[in-house]
Amino acid sequence: MRDTPPSNTVLCAGRLYCDLVFTGVPKLPVMGTETFANDLSLHAGGGAFITAAAFSALGWQASLLATLPAAPFDSIVCAQIESSGVEIDFCKSAERGAAPQLTVAITGKDDRAFLSNKTGKAMPDFDFSAGAIKHLHIGELRSLVEHPDLIEKARLAGMTISLDCAWDAELLAQGSQMSSLLSKVDVFLPNDSEYSLLTQSGLAEDATPLTVVKCGSEGARALQQGRWIVVPAIPATVVDSTGAGDAFNGGFLTSWLSGKPLRDCLLDGNRCGHISVGQTGGTGGLAELRSDIQYHSKLA
Known about the structure:
Blueprint: E1 9-13, E2 17-23, E3 39-45, H1 47-57, E4 61-65, H2 73-84, E5 102-107, E6 112-116, E7 135-138, H3 141-146, H4 149-156, E8 160-164, H5 169-172, H6 175-182, E9 187-189, H7 192-200, E10 210-214, E11 220-224, E12 227-231, H8 244-257, H9 262-276, H10 289-299
Parallel strand pairs: 1-4, 1-7, 2-5, 7-8, 8-9, 9-10
Antiparallel strand pairs: 2-3, 5-6, 10-11, 11-12
Helix pairs in contact: 1-8, 8-9
């Protein structure tokens, strides 16, 4: 058994979806009407997987802890996860007869909307081995609320912990009740809308040791020890913004775990998000991540 966790191993836990991504949508559908998209594609989705794929693209050993979508979508998802280099040894098949866990992503020129179906537990029960994994990333706040034991298990195993938020209207209205739970993670990574609603509903601004707020085309900002650091976005032509925040997570966290200054971590997160929005699907541009980050690091 190792005395300290290996330097580049991470576990990403959360709901795993098959994303049906509609692109080139002129306007969002309205009840009683029909809207036509320019294209449709299927992708492995969910914040935990996309962040794991970003870690993998950047040279880290990444594993996924999740329940697989029900057949026939499990084969599509598993093939894409395998091609991304993410390990699925800790994943579990959906219960027999379970409804497929799907997200319909509708991407227009300026924004997107999602319609998702959750089924069963987000992930199987799992006991961490001390020293085996360096870091735990949890893909959405709801998964942590449903599996609060993740924090204690990870701490006992010597792991640092990060958490994305993901849109959940019910939880976003309970900011004051979330403060205690969020104080137990090392890095919290909501987007601007999520963070605004959480603070409006009572979440203390400094509830976590490090809060990183993703602001889309405005870039990202981070709050640590009472001080905000702001880094603007890289201008991009947006093809599909699905998963861009999760790709940002991978870029930011790989740099944070490597001990880089906070401003550099934000820059690397922005670069990953910039690449992600240029192709369809949350992992569409991740193959470019490693060379892009290395190139910009040499220029720094």
